[in-house]
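Ticket #4471: structure output looks truncated?

Reporter: J.K.
Steps to reproduce: submitted the chain below (400 residues) through the standard prediction queue, then opened the result file.
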Amino acid sequence: MLTGMRPDTIRVWDLHADFRKTSPGVIPLPEYFKKNGYFVQGIGKIFHDGMDDRESWSVPAKYANVSKLEDYRLPDNRKPHKGRKAAATEFVDEPESAYPDGMVSAEAVAVIEQLAARRAGAEPFYLAVGFRKPHAPFTAPRKYWDLYDPAKIPPVAQPEPPRGAPKIALHDSVELRGYSDMPKTGPFTDAQIARLRHGYYAAASFTDAQIGRVLEALDRSGLAKNTIIVFWGDHGYHLGEHGLWCKTTCYEADTRVPLIVVAPGERPRGVRSDALVELVDIYPTLLELCGLPERRGLEGKSLVPNINDAAAPGRAAAFSQFPRPWPLRKDGAPGVMGYAVRTPTHRYIEWRKFGTLEVAARELYTYQGDQLFETENLLEKPENKTLADKLAALLTQETP
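Returned output as attached by the reporter:
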């Protein structure tokens, strides 16, 4: 998203590859603003932990790298644990300021106040604020847990994998099993599932409150009237649906994310667009909204037409990908890559042996209404051959 280019283009498929090394010459979004006269500051998790990009910022980033130990407040969880992960959930009576995301919001508020106090005519600013929750571990002050009655939290909507899904499409929830109180193999108990879902709700509300603090500071400062705000999530999350936890699939729950854009001017407010868009679209969108020179080579499309008119058409399809195995092989390359194309009504997936066009498995799903979870792989039904071929051709146009 920050480069405006797809993973295969910049050759980054995991949490360790550095795009500065795999794709020299790429200019990420914040650096491009810096090069065009903006004061640019990053607070929190913008690039991945341990991967902060110093060239992107006008001043050193704050809270860019935070140990997972800081997610916890209880002494038993703060002791060294194998793989740095302690309990998957924790709630205690601690102030918000004791948590990394509370520190991020406080720092963002302070920076906004400083920006508002600058002299007239100071350079425009670009402020990137990254929150880590509601990503696991689900830790937040007790008051956010108390917002929810566990008995009223909806049960898992579809606990079984899609019928006919190939084995390669699924996984063993290895990311969640890395936490100290989770089973290393086998099913999760009903009590564990209920606790995890409760924790996700609490962590989401905690993050919502931190975002509110930042937006309130922007309003108080008077800067809101002349500031573009873009809010997004970097990935979705499985919470037991399909028998899966966390992310790392090509399915809807992992690839559908929130996206909210607020732009000054006479534009519609509080309206929702059904247009298909992608996170790579954010880069060219901000350039157009801010009147900056177009950057060649970007693979996204400006969303300004959709911001100006919620009924404007979006993409014909949105694309995503995720590799197997996960984590990647020791050589840092995928063995098989899952490529997905999402239209307004269907999702088509090809699992290709990486570096070739040889297809190891295929999937086709339909969505109806507000349905978010895949139910049955329809690829083997003869009546779907024409549709599958059409989507396969669309996918081939967009991927190597």
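Triage note (M.O.): checked the attachment and the full token line is present. The chain has two domains: 7-314, 316-400.
Status: closed, working as intended.
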